[in-house]
Design brief:
Shape: elongated
Strand order of the largest sheet: 3-5-7-6-4
Distance between the termini: 93 Å
Order of helices and strands: EEEHEHEHHEHEEEHEEHEHEEHHH
Oligomer: single chain
Radius of gyration: 32 Å
Number of helices: 11
Structural class: alpha+beta
Number of strands: 14
């Protein structure tokens, strides 16, 4: 992967920390991939002969869903108020490009790196809420293998955890003891992805309050944690810049995300020439009942911007889906190409050394193959004589007749 920007492309080692959500229905297929329970995989780079090298920093002693049910029954966690298809699993994926590990010691270095990454996840998610943590060391990188002249594997870490936050349950108005109404009845460990990954407001260098996406904060924390643990020579990427650690197609996604941020800024801060106030919170007048009154023009502008923001989110999701599918196709084609190149290598070398001899040898084989096929075709066209079947007799008298 490359850093893109200012019309320059430079090779970099970069860290990735991302989160993928799953519900109880779809987690099983991802569990089979993470725990290597399948006999074959769509990802052709998975080499099951090397799966014994995968490292389990934490192993689930049953299926993820069974573990979830067990924790609910023991009241260790709560699913209160969640829909049946709610996102209750967070798959955290930590990664640095292959070159980084290979240039620092390979497999042994990767084990040390991802053990620290696991401890980071324990700190962020709570160790008791992590169901599984697996370092994959069995996905071959064919390009790197060709470069180094021996099998090189891409190391990365999958962590499956429950997004748990503490939730206060308060006494309702139905409580007989009116003195307790509104006070805390109990504190439960609630599974809630939206609350766990709630974006945070921070104050920038100009004193403005800005909303920072939670996943961006995760990237910051992961990068800082690993740097403090002594792992260097990789970058997180420049904040607030178009120079991101992305491929060319991913760069298009980053541009769309920038556009979305601009739209969101427009919603939060309106031009002074359009309305009297800058902040959306200040638009309109709040009545004594708590409702906000605004002009028709202001309302139309806000709804228009909101619709544009929603459309942009859909575009971004489309591009992310597109890049995932294309990357899978590229991986599959790269594998087939490398396999074909490996099979053809002796013949290409032979043609380079003795082209005439190789041509004559192949022509002779093809001539013999055609003659054999022609002979077999002629043989199939020759009619066989009818088969005379032995007559069947029902009795001795029938035979004598």
């Amino acid at each position: 992967m490359y850093i893109i920007g200012d019309d320059k492309i430079a090779k970099q080692n970069y860290s990735v920390a991302r989160v993928v959500t799953h519900n109880r229905d779809d987690i099983s297929k991802f569990e089979r991939h993470i725990e290597r329970k399948n006999d074959n995989y769509a990802n052709m780079n998975v080499d099951l002969s090397q799966s014994h090298r995968n490292i389990q920093f934490k192993k689930c002693d049953c299926t993820y869903n069974d573990k979830l049910n067990e924790m609910v029954e023991s009241k260790q966690i709560s699913l209160r108020g969640l829909k049946a298809d709610a996102k209750v699993y967070d798959e955290m994926i930590f990664d640095v490009n292959t070159e980084y590990f290979e240039s620092h010691g390979g497999y042994e270095f990767a084990k040390e790196f991802y053990e620290q990454a696991f401890h980071f996840a324990e700190k962020e998610m709570g160790g008791e809420y992590i169901l599984s943590a697996v370092m994959h060391a069995d996905e071959i990188n064919l390009a790197a293998s060709d470069k180094y002249g021996y099998p090189v594997y891409h190391y990365h870490l999958h962590i499956v955890a429950l997004p748990v936050v503490q939730k206060e349950i308060k006494w309702s108005k139905r409580c007989k003891n009116k003195a307790l109404v509104g006070t805390v009845k109990e504190v439960v460990n609630q599974v809630s992805h939206s609350k766990k990954w709630k974006s945070e407001q921070i104050v920038d260098e100009n004193g403005n309050r800005i909303l920072v996406p939670s996943y961006s904060l995760l990237q910051d924390k992961f990068f800082e944690y690993m740097q403090n643990a002594g792992f260097e020579d990789f970058v997180r990427g420049e904040k607030g810049s178009t120079r991101e650690n992305l491929s060319v197609l991913q760069y298009q996604i980053s541009k769309d995300e920038e556009r979305l941020k601009e739209i969101q800024k427009k919603i939060e801060i309106i031009e002074p020439t359009q309305i009297e106030y800058k902040k959306i919170d200040d638009i309109g007048k709040r009545t004594f009942t708590g409702k906000v009154q605004m002009s028709n023009d202001d309302y139309d502008k806000l709804t228009s911007l909101a619709k544009e923001a929603i459309t942009s989110r859909a575009d971004i999701q489309y591009y992310k889906t597109l890049i995932y599918g294309m990357q899978r196709q590229i991986d599959d084609l790269q594998y087939k190409f490398d396999r074909l190149r490996h099979l053809c290598r002796p013949y290409v070398e032979a043609i380079r050394i003795a082209p005439e001899k190789v041509k004559k040898f192949i022509d002779d084989i093809l001539v013999k193959a055609r003659e054999k096929a022609k002979a077999e075709k002629v043989k199939e066209e020759i009619p066989y004589p009818p088969i005379r079947r032995k007559p069947k007799y029902k009795s001795k008298e029938d035979f004598e007749r």
